[in-house]
Predict the structure.
Amino acid sequence: MKSNPPFYCDGVPRRDFLRIGALTGFGVGLTLESFLAGKAASASPNVAGGPLYAGEAKALPAKAKAAIFIRLGGGPSHMDTFDLKPDAPDTHRGEFHPIATNVDGIQISEHLPKLAKCADKYAILRGVSHTLAAHELGSLYMGTGNRPIASLSFPSFGAVVSKELGSERELPGFVAVPSQGSNSTGYLGVEYGPFETGASPVAGKPMEVRGLALRGVTLTDVDRRQNMVEKYDTAFGDFANEDKILSGMNQFGQKAYQMMRSTKAREAFDLSHEPGSISGLFGSTPFSQSCLLASRLVESGVRFVTVQLGGWDTHSDNFAALKNTRLPDLDAGLSGLLLALEAKGLLATTAVYVTGEFGRTPKINPRAGRDHYPRAMFCLLAGGGIRGGQVVGASDAKGEGPKDKAITPDDIAATFYGQLGIDVRKEYLTPSGRPVMIVRNGEVIRDLV
């Protein structure tokens, strides 16, 4: 079975790579500007008990200055990763065994040995639950903290963080490796969209991010083109400033110009500058290298990084796919990320959120697979004030649903934003003038912080 098929089982295409046609003009300058503007237009003492919520969603004291969102596209099985049920019936239990972690009383899958050795760095959320079993809808819910509705497109975490925390002059506020996938800016302006790398880094090879490499183009050429663009902007006058789309695209153009002239921007994407003590923490797969890049981007000043790891849509051969590819890949990349952030002194100020769009059925199907199942899933949170080395929430004995109180995507979003000091009850105005809260229903999960 292919690990990253081009379509999910429900026919929704994966958006793992940005496809840009041939460009004209100076090439590099137009590529980066189009790159940015084009997409934007488009029972243990360590197991927490007691109340999960304090009954309000007021912003927490900000601990994090940046965030990394790791999306496990396709929906990973909670039963085979971070919520094993060794005492469940054979029809549910699966082939994997739990192993002890470096935190007493917490066990995870035997195929996550590196994450088992750093379980004190992250919190496991079990009994996370919602009702949207379609890939796209589940992704929108888990990626925004708002249950999707037909009348409104909610902005992604990256867009909100980019708006609230801003960005450095020479760097994008929001980077997606290799692409954002689902919803990006929603009802926010296009200027809050992601800079997509278009590809994942490859171990041992320089990462030439499209638009930042000045191949055959001098900075004089770039300056000449920018002067020409500014003359046209002056000619359009206030019209370009008053039109939200044109204004946003103009801001992308300015950012593209700043990044092309910036040595800092190019070096932020250059993994060859990482010392062996850091790069050696990661595996050689594209996901591991993407996690290494995420740590470097945050260190350089990027506020929000999204990293994609697909291939979790395991309707058949679930155990072979997880054992041979997905779990070792996740294990090496995520453990490397947490250890690298700690070594760089950044874990305390970087919020890390790991999730799929839903879980998978506790009962194994006749094809040795597990199907879509939003009623029970896991998520991980780390850094930025999150108290690691604990499990919050629980699923029932067969992993079929929350044992007690469910944790919702809204609650996790409120907590994630709270790490960054963002008040989720703050209201934005949509283009039609409708006031909308950043997250409408979530409450901060106080046991985590």
Remarks:
- Residues 15-31, 33-51, 213-223, 243-249 have pLDDT under 50 and may be disordered.
